[in-house]
Write a structure and sequence with these properties.
This protein is of the alpha/beta class. The chain contains 16 helices and 6 strands.
């Protein structure tokens, strides 16, 4: 077993990745029985690439057991309330301008990155041809010995937040979702491997300096920043009249949300009357929003979770059976090779 200093935990925001795989690979990829497998093959290729590039010793693919947990909705009814897919999957793909001629074995990486970089973050109503692939992704990962975890009434973000908080080793979080920037911590070597801009093959390494440069805020202030500014993709209205620039200025000046609120209550503080009024008018929202924005650190993780990354498939016969039945071909071999050759 590697020394503790060499241990590295890789956490996957699985929904973010399987949407990228689904929209980034040709929908003509089918098993012999006609089952779509583009997301399955894309996820296998993603896992192989991530393991090769980032050399983890531990690995968990986090799942959305509930994309809109009841406890968040109770706090803020608008949370993700708008995420209803209006178009069919075909219309969505057409709007995204996806046109792939490459085969899975010729130009796979480029097809995934070029196409999926234009996909939506997530949608509530999953395309049928993606939903049938999710159990297959989980099954093949489990046969390989790649841990998966979803917990009732929690999002994948919460699973990732809890596992990150509990980790005593460096953590890399693979996602296309900015919400997880709140987990970045240079001192604890916790980074986000951000896929939204350039894909899995060319992730942006998000640390505190990256966040500070991108948003002009202290590197560990992303959760407060998102709370103030809001996030339409999650149904977070933000404080009315407080945009990105003002939110950044407030955090730079006062440090954190609680100090900003205290300053709004203090007539002698160095805060303009206009901003003070906007914050005081938004106190009802500010009373609940931080708990909605913050990823949970208290997800009940089963004691049976084994996140050790194997060098060989846990059940090679089952892997081979799925590979043959679904026609997963070289995607299975790429992951097998990545596991065997990892540092």
């Amino acid at each position: 077993m590697p020394a503790a200093s060499q241990e590295r935990l890789l956490l996957l925001d699985t929904a973010s990745l399987y949407y990228r795989a689904y929209y980034g690979m040709p929908d003509t990829m089918r098993a012999p029985d006609g089952t779509p497998i583009n997301a399955v093959r894309g996820m296998l290729d993603f896992a192989a690439r991530l393991i090769t590039d980032h050399s983890p010793t531990r690995f968990v693919a986090a799942l959305d057991a509930n994309w809109r947990p009841s406890w968040r909705v109770e706090l803020l009814p608008s949370y993700k309330a708008h995420r209803v897919l209006q178009e069919t999957a075909e219309e969505t793909a057409e709007q995204l301008g996806l046109d792939f001629e490459e085969s899975i074995d010729e130009g796979t990486d480029q097809a995934l990155d070029d196409g999926a970089a234009r996909t939506v973050d997530a949608v509530a109503e999953m395309p049928d041809e993606l939903s049938v692939q999710i159990p297959l992704i989980v099954e093949i990962f489990q046969h390989f010995g790649l841990a998966t975890l979803g917990v009732d009434d929690f999002e994948a973000d919460d699973v990732i937040g809890t596992l990150t908080h509990r980790s005593q080793i460096p953590v890399g979080i693979v996602t296309g979702d900015r919400d997880l920037f709140q987990l970045v911590d240079d001192a604890l070597v916790r980074r986000v491997l951000y896929t939204a801009a350039r894909g899995v093959n060319r992730v942006d390494i998000v640390n505190e300096a990256w966040i500070a440069e991108k948003y002009a805020i202290p590197g560990k202030s992303y959760a407060d920043f998102a709370t103030l500014r809001g996030d339409p993709s999650d149904g977070l209205p933000g404080v009315r009249g407080i945009g990105q620039k003002t939110a950044a200025t407030l955090l730079t000046q006062f440090g954190d949300l609680s100090t900003i609120i205290a300053a709004a209550h203090d007539p002698d503080s160095q805060m303009t009357a206009t901003v003070r009024k906007k914050l005081l008018d938004g106190l009802d929202y500010l009373a609940v929003a931080p708990r909605v924005v913050a990823v949970s650190r208290e997800v009940p993780v089963p004691d049976t979770l084994d996140d050790a990354l194997p060098r060989l498939p846990r059940d090679d016969d089952a892997v081979e059976e799925m590979a043959e039945r679904l026609g997963l071909g070289r995607s299975v071999e790429r992951l097998r090779t990545a596991l065997a050759k990892r540092n």
